[in-house]
Amino acid sequence: MDTAMDDGKPSRRRLKQRYPLTVLILQRLGLSAGLLLAVSILIFGGVEALPGDFAQTYLGQSATPQAIENIRSQLGLERPITTRYFEWLGNAVQGDFGKSWASGNSVSEQIGKRLGNSLFLAFCAAIISVPLAVGLGMLAVHFRNRIPDRIINIVSLAAISLPEFFIGYLLILFFAVKFGVASFPATVYDGMAFSDRLAAIALPTATLVFVVLAHMMRMTRAAIISVMSSAYMETAELKGLGAFKIIIKHAAPNAIAPIVNVVALNLAYLVVGVVVVEVVFVYPGMGQYMVDAVTVRDMPVVQACGLIFAAVYILLNMVADLIAIIANPKLRHPR
């Protein structure tokens, strides 16, 4: 038995040495799946622990105890929580989140429409904020400790300090109310022209860009400055290369790992953290759908939205982790 154990350990060690990237990818996938399972337990248990009762809310204060009991029996709420959890999890893995208690519609169909709206909003904010953040970060490094760098830092600090709902209300006040150049609320619907859809989401997109831009820009600046202190950067300077050329061709590619991580975290926020922005602009996305469900304690909808938000966040973090490992060979052989 000891020999078998001794043989097993070296074999696993040899596997890690021969296929380090494959092993790390499998480990990250396993950790992500385990984390999502743990999150599903927290989501289901947390929603169950919410105060109030759907049957009471649905029927009103004048409902009789028998009527409330009948509704609970129809929904299967009298069964043990563990039985209901495993049934819900098994169906969720197959893409079936059940039916909404409030409307009776399929939760999966409703989420499909809402998730598409949220992803469209997040995508529009991402294609603006990511290139702009990286560009401003490199510009701040080029003019380090000079007026452009200080202006960018001051504006970014102000953006980080302001909550997204405050920024949203300011944009509504100036651009929708006073100047009338933007639409409010941000209403979109099936069959809407692409140009009209872009015009409708202009203000919520601007709010999200303003919120995530500052963090990405500051992390890009910090990562590039860290690389600029390396010895080979001094060699590039001694060769007579221009400062901006050194940043673009040498510093930025070597700082890609931390930049990708912070970009992925902010992309996850764009999808997961749009709840407040969607409520402010009355945008028909996942966040608005979840908030409406919470008010009536529509548990299937709340649980489905929570699980999808968690899955998106975990997935984007895993992708960022894998990209950082691929970009930095040192991470493939941790000590």
What is the beta-strand fraction? under 5%
Overall pLDDT confidence: 78
Coarse structural class:
mainly alpha
What is the count of DSSP helices, taking H or I runs of 4+ residues? 16
Q: Tell me the number of strands.
A: 0
Gyration radius over CA: 25 Å
Order of helices and strands: HHHHHHHHHHHHHHHH
Helix fraction, binned, reads over 70%
Q: Alpha-carbon distance between the termini?
A: 28 Å
Spatial shape:
flat
Unreliable parts: 1-7
Strand count, sense and barrel status of the largest sheet are: none
Which helices and strands occur, and which strands form pairs?
Layout: H1 2-18, H2 20-48, H3 54-59, H4 65-75, H5 81-93, H6 107-142, H7 147-161, H8 164-178, H9 194-200, H10 202-228, H11 231-238, H12 243-254, H13 256-272, H14 275-280, H15 286-295, H16 299-327
Helix pairs in contact: 1-2, 2-16, 6-7, 6-10, 6-12, 6-13, 7-10, 8-10, 10-12, 10-13, 13-16, 15-16
Describe the structure.
This protein has 335 residues and is mostly helical. 77% of the residues lie in helices and 0% in strands. It has 16 helices and no strands. The protein has helices spanning 2-18, 20-48, 54-59, 65-75, 81-93, 107-142, 147-161, 164-178, 194-200, 202-228, 231-238, 243-254, 256-272, 275-280, 286-295, 299-327. The radius of gyration is 25 Å and the shape is flat.
